[in-house]
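Here is my example:
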Amino acid sequence: MNKQEFLSRRQALLAQMKPASAAIFFAAPEAQRNADSEYPYRQHSDFLYLTGFSEPEAILVLIKSDETHNHSVLFNRVRDLTAEIWFGRRLGQEAAPEKLGVDKALPYEDVGEQLYQLLNGLDIVYHAQGEYAFADEIVFNALDTLRKGSRRNLKAPQTLIDWRPIVHELRLFKSDAEIELLRKAGKISALAHTRAMQKCQPGMYEYQLQGEIEHEFISHGARFPSYNSIVGSGENGCILHYTENETKMRDGDLVLIDAGCEYEGYAGDITRTFPVNGKFSRQQREIYEIVLKSLNVSLELYKPGTSIKEVTKHVVYIMVEGLVKLGIMHGDIEHLIETKAYQRFFMHSLSHWLGLDVHDVGHYGTDRDRILEPGMVLTIEPGLYIAPDADVPQEYRGIGIRIEDDIVITETGNENLTAMVVKDPDEIEALMAGKI
């Protein structure tokens, strides 16, 4: 993604800032794993969105003097030959303006002496208070210096505003460049799920299937999962965020895989559920067909002008109707929906935003009633989870099924970014048998 994309994002933010203001953004700190080892570094998504810069110890300051004048300053780490031999290359100050499109770059260690001067005389500071304690300390020290410097003609901004609602609204609507990266993340994630179906067999451990999935991610240039991979076989499929992935998979069980890659910062998020032995039992297929119908109807309904709340109503009706027919639920369908009795079996939301974060930012409205618009990207993930101790016919207990695709809302409907991995039960069986 070129620097013009990030410059356009910063300009969109500046357009919504008030005159005589500055917005301050902090890179994510490194996270210690244990002893002297760190977790692989992942930049804070808001900072990444505005800069494309993936080093820690960095601060972006956007200053809007008036409606026609603004400038950007980046604080980042200095070049250090010894540190770079041990820990990797640094961009430094000289290369930053050309590489990132900022107006000026200053050493990170100078922020204490420089930040208050950048804020001097402004009226407003945009800052995400409470996100990082060290960031609050840096900002409030600068403001305190200004407040105490009135005799030196220093003037502190009087208003503090949280920039997150503005930035997160910008992030909700994806550009063409972002959608292309989401397509790529979806394609690689789909290849991984296809590989899992082809490799799966009774007697494997869940973590071995996880290895097949993440092998596919890395081999296509997506070096990290976008979240911890879920590989839950048998009753483990009824645990929504099961990540132990340590059980030996048994003949006759289903396995639910919820896994996606991160590609250049953007997340894929796919769930498929299939039989470990390659053949659905009657009961497994009956539950599966309800979930699949819910997803297919959602794909038909999601378009500009509708909402997650509205589509969810249709999905819930399909699920309750199907469960009543199977004797898993009993009573009047409308009453079961009104009393939310179905939440024993479908307890999570149908959809969430997708982007730089797998559960991406952006306001959903009240009870997810926000009207969908072109450029929004979201998941569709209906699921039914029948606990092993549920008061239902024995043959349905312990079945957990979720199917999930990623879509972008278009001018006329939606584009399914993950349709290339099969979900029809007959096609799943054919793929696992090596027939397609």
Remarks:
- The chain has a mean pLDDT of 98.
- The CA atoms of residues 9 and 297 lie 35 Å apart.
- The longest strand covers residues 70-76.
